[in-house]
Write a structure and sequence with these properties.
This protein is mainly α. It is built from 4 helices and no strands. α2 runs antiparallel to α3.
Length: 145
């Protein structure tokens, strides 16, 4: 079980680091990256599978010596939910009270790209935070296996 746990944990870290890197490059260069969103979602799914595996291990009776380990396991889920909530608020922050449909097409495109860039920045940060938290979770597994 420890090999599966480690392999899945490293996969979660790698996917989130790759997504974070692609997102950071897209954000810095003001360009749209479809690959970023696929990598981000793959990282989120892998994170969920990792947390579920941890739950199965815990129910099976294996426990980490450091109780901080369980905080590092749950925080990626919290970070992901917070990131999605912040991403959802991006449009309203960018638009304010503006009626989007009344704007000229060029201005609509400009605002749309600004919203996209803000969402990319939020989710890039989330992916990098998740990678760090899962790394810390793996580091604190002493006594679990």
């Amino acid at each position: 079980m420890s090999d599966l746990y480690l392999a899945l944990g490293l996969t979660v870290i790698a996917l989130n680091l790759i997504a974070g890197t692609v997102g950071a490059l897209a954000w810095a260069n003001h360009r749209v990256s479809i690959a970023f969103w696929y990598l981000l979602r793959a990282g989120q799914v892998a994170t969920l599978v990792f947390v579920l595996l941890e739950f199965v291990i815990y129910v099976g009776g294996d426990r980490a010596d450091d109780s901080l380990h369980y905080l590092y396991i749950l925080l990626p889920v919290v970070a992901s939910l917070m990131g999605e909530a912040m991403r959802g608020a991006s449009a309203s922050q960018e638009l304010g009270e503006t009626d989007f449909s009344s704007l000229a097409p060029d201005r609509q495109r400009e605002i749309g790209l600004a919203i996209y860039r803000r969402e990319t920045g939020v989710m890039t940060t989330t992916a990098l935070v998740i990678a760090f938290l899962v790394w810390r979770a793996i580091e604190t597994t002493t006594g679990m296996f």
